Amino acid sequence: MDVDIGNALASVASPGVSRDSLERLDEQVADAHERIEDGMANGEHGYEALNLPDRTDPDEIRRAVEPVADAEALVTVGIGGSALGAATITEALDSDTKTVYLDNVDPAWVTAELERLPLENTAINVVSRSGTTAETLANFLVVREAFEDAGVDWTERTIVTTGESGPLRDLSERHDLPSLKVPDGVPGRFSALSAVGMVAAAVCGHDLEALLEGATAEADTLSGSLFDCPAYAYGATSYALDARGAGMNAMVPYAESLETYSEWFAQLWAESLGKDDLGQTPLRALGVTDQHSQLQLYRAGPRDKVVTFVTPREADDRAIPDTEVDDLAYLGDATLGELLDAEFEATEASLAAAGRPNVRIELERVDEYELGGLLYGMEAACVLAGELYGVNTFEQPAVEWAKKATRGLLGGGEFEEADAVAEKTELR
Ligand code: PA5
C-alpha cells in the first residue's frame, strides 16, 4: 500500500502536523520500532501477530477445509476479531461460495440468515480464540440444531478454529471435528492472517499464498523511520493529528468491496487504542455513498477529524450508456469507474480546500496480494500508534468485562462483573 499524508500537513490543514513535528516524532518512532522488533523476535503477546506472514501455513488450512471444499455456502460463526478479518477478505473478493457471518445474536436476524442458506450444501466455520464467547457458542448451537432439523450431518461439515483448550475445543474433540489452533500470542483483531481469517478464504477458493505474500511485502517495509515505512507513516500521522485535536478517524474506502474493511479497521483502532482515556474514535463510511450524507460534517463540521481514503488504482469498469437527453451526454462519454474516480478526486480536493486533514491510502487493485498488504500495514500502523500513545495495544479489558458480565448474568459462572450489573439494575 502507498500512503500519502500531504493533505494532513499543517501547511494545508487544521488540525495538521508540521514536517518539523513529524521529524521530532520520528525519534519516538525509531524507539517504538526497536520495541516492536524485539517483541516480534521474542514472540511476545501481540507483537507475534506481525510474524504471521512467516508463520501461517496455507497447506494446513487447505487440508482442514478439504472435506467442505465443494460447499455452495459457508456460514462463519464468530464475533469481533474472530469474524471481521475473514469477512473483510471474503467480502472484498469474488467467489462462487456464498458467505454468511453470524456474529450478532438478534434472533430474528439469525433465523432469517439461516433460512437463506442451502443447509444440505453449507459448511460451518466456527471461530473463537477463547472458546468461551457466549454469542459464538450460542449461535453455533442454534446452527447445529438447524442442520439437525434439516436432516444434515453437521459434524461432516464443520471446521473449528479455537485455542488449545476451552469449551469449544472440548466440543470439537467430542465430535472429532477438523480443527485448527489460533496461534499463541495473537489477539483476535490481529488474527486475520492466521487460520482465524483464512479458513473462510480457503473455502471460498482464494489465493492464501498471495494474501501472505502481500503481507510479507508490507512487513519488509517496517523500519525505524516513518518516512521510509507507509504503515508507520499512517500510524504516526494519525497519532500526531489526534494529539492536535483530530480525535476521530473516518475510514472511507472508494470501493464497495472494501466496506467490511472499514468495520475491521474500526475494531482494530478502537479496541487496541481506546485505553487510559486515550485513543482516536474510528468512523465507518463508504465512498461514494457517504458523500451524500457524512461529507457535509467532515468538510464543515467541527475540526476534530481526519479522513482516511482507501482507493484502488485499477478496477473492473463498466460504460455508462448514451442517452437521448443532451444534458446527460457527459455521462455517456464516461464509465462508472471514471465517475467513481472523479467523485473521489473531488471529495479529496474539497476537504483539502477546506483545510481538513485527510490521508490517501492507494492499493494497486483489490486482490489477495493487496488485501494482505493492507491488513498487515494497518495492523503495524496500529501497533506503532499504540507504542506512541503508551497504551497496552493487545489487551481489551472493557470488552472482557462485558463478556464476563453477560456470562454471569445468564448463570454461566461466578463473575464480579455480573454482580456489578445486578447492583446497578437494582438501583434503578
Ligand atoms: O480482538 C478481540 O480480542 C475481540 O474482538 C475478540 O476477537 C472477540 O471478543 C471474540 O473473542 P473470541 O475469539 O474469544 O470468541
TrEMBL record:
<dbReference type="GO" id="GO:0006096">
    <property type="term" value="P:glycolytic process"/>
</dbReference>
<dbReference type="InterPro" id="IPR018189">
    <property type="entry name" value="Phosphoglucose_isomerase_CS"/>
</dbReference>
<dbReference type="GO" id="GO:0004347">
    <property type="term" value="F:glucose-6-phosphate isomerase activity"/>
</dbReference>
<comment type="function">
    <text>Catalyzes the reversible isomerization of glucose-6-phosphate to fructose-6-phosphate.</text>
</comment>
<comment type="pathway">
    <text>Carbohydrate biosynthesis; gluconeogenesis.</text>
</comment>
<dbReference type="InterPro" id="IPR001672">
    <property type="entry name" value="G6P_Isomerase"/>
</dbReference>
<dbReference type="GO" id="GO:0048029">
    <property type="term" value="F:monosaccharide binding"/>
</dbReference>
<dbReference type="GO" id="GO:0051156">
    <property type="term" value="P:glucose 6-phosphate metabolic process"/>
</dbReference>
<keyword id="KW-0312">Gluconeogenesis</keyword>
<dbReference type="GO" id="GO:0006094">
    <property type="term" value="P:gluconeogenesis"/>
</dbReference>
<feature type="active site" description="Proton donor">
    <location>
        <position position="271"/>
    </location>
</feature>
<feature type="active site">
    <location>
        <position position="403"/>
    </location>
</feature>
<dbReference type="Pfam" id="PF00342">
    <property type="entry name" value="PGI"/>
</dbReference>
<comment type="pathway">
    <text>Carbohydrate degradation; glycolysis; D-glyceraldehyde 3-phosphate and glycerone phosphate from D-glucose: step 2/4.</text>
</comment>
<dbReference type="GO" id="GO:0005829">
    <property type="term" value="C:cytosol"/>
</dbReference>
<comment type="similarity">
    <text>Belongs to the GPI family.</text>
</comment>
<dbReference type="GO" id="GO:0097367">
    <property type="term" value="F:carbohydrate derivative binding"/>
</dbReference>
<feature type="active site">
    <location>
        <position position="292"/>
    </location>
</feature>
<keyword id="KW-0413">Isomerase</keyword>
<keyword id="KW-0963">Cytoplasm</keyword>
<dbReference type="InterPro" id="IPR035476">
    <property type="entry name" value="SIS_PGI_1"/>
</dbReference>
<keyword id="KW-0324">Glycolysis</keyword>
<protein>
    <recommendedName>
        <fullName>Probable glucose-6-phosphate isomerase</fullName>
        <ecNumber>5.3.1.9</ecNumber>
    </recommendedName>
</protein>
<dbReference type="InterPro" id="IPR046348">
    <property type="entry name" value="SIS_dom_sf"/>
</dbReference>
